[in-house]
Design goal:
By secondary structure, the chain is mostly helical. 89% of the residues lie in helices and 0% in strands. Among the domains are: 95 residues, Receptor-associated Protein; 61 residues. It contains eleven helices and no strands.
Length: 284
């Protein structure tokens, strides 16, 4: 009887282990598929909107190799917790990189808009039409303005109305000044009036606002630098203590109390970063 009970218990344990393994495999397969679809959309749509053309297979391959390399190094240095952190970082890194590229591109595009308005105004004063003025912007302005307005021209040649193509660029970028530029072009075309003069006044207004933003950024640079130093200080101190006291520091990654300490540090770092960003960020 006891032998039969032992066999049944072993079978039950094996069944439970198999079920858990199957559930973990299904979860892993679903997660990998979701990440692959997300990275595919990132390379085919979001990066192409920034005029960064990346082969999807190469992009997926490099992401996989980077994740494996980071996870391996973290496993050797910090153990299982390091692997978990490395996997999370590898998963979010492509999106963070895309947001960084997008922020830099929009910053450069916004600084070009006053020159774009003046260029269109000058072309209109010389007798050109609006389409010819936009073509002049696409030909003579540097990227990203040249790329965006060249896309407007291509869409217009394919049958899209010029107003709709300009509105699509403004909606995709989300820049307030570009929305104002498109609105001025639309109102002047519908109601008439001095479009060149309106564009020149808009360009001067945009320059004044950008100059004010630059001044505010210069005045708040000390606060941003203090935030960077205070945020990096715990990481640098942790690295120094890891070299000096590796046995004690390893407990942060191998014991529950250490995990709780790291979680608290990360939450405090995140809270300080958000608070400081709200303090130094001033909208004009």
């Amino acid at each position: 009887m006891s032998g039969g009970s032992s066999v049944l218990a072993s079978m039950a344990v094996a069944a439970c282990v198999g079920l858990v393994a199957w559930l973990l495999l299904c979860a892993l397969t679903t997660t990998v598929g979701w990440q692959r679809d997300r990275l595919t959309h990132l390379s085919r749509v979001q990066f192409e909107e920034l005029f960064l053309f990346v082969d999807t297979r190469t992009f997926l391959r490099w992401n996989l190799l980077g994740a494996l390399a980071v996870a391996t190094c973290s496993a050797l240095l910090f153990g299982p917790v390091g692997v978990l952190v490395a996997v999370i970082v590898s998963a979010v890194a492509p999106s963070v990189l895309h947001r960084w590229f997008r922020r830099r591109r929009l910053y450069a595009f916004e600084r070009q808009l006053p020159d774009v308005a003046d260029s269109i105004a000058g072309s209109l004063r010389s007798g050109m039409g609006l389409g010819q003025a936009i073509a002049r912007v696409a030909a003579h302005q540097p990227p990203p303005a040249a790329q965006e307005f060249a896309l407007v021209l291509r869409e217009h040649r394919l049958g899209v109305a010029l107003d709709e193509a300009l509105a699509a660029v403004a909606a995709r970028s989300g820049l307030r000044d570009l929305h104002m530029l498109v609105a001025v072009l639309g109102i002047a075309r519908d109601l008439g009036g001095g479009l060149a003069g309106a564009l020149e006044r808009l360009g001067a207004s945009m320059r004044r606002r950008l100059a004010m933003e630059d001044r505010i950024r210069a005045l708040t640079s000390q606060g941003r630098l203090q935030g960077i130093v205070m945020g990096a200080l715990p990481l640098v101190l942790g690295a120094v203590l890891w070299v000096l006291e590796p046995e004690h520091m390893r407990k942060l990654f191998t014991e529950p109390l250490g995990w709780l300490t790291l979680t608290g540090v990360l939450l405090l770092e995140l809270g300080g970063f958000v608070l400081l960003r709200k303090i130094v960020r001033i909208e004009v």
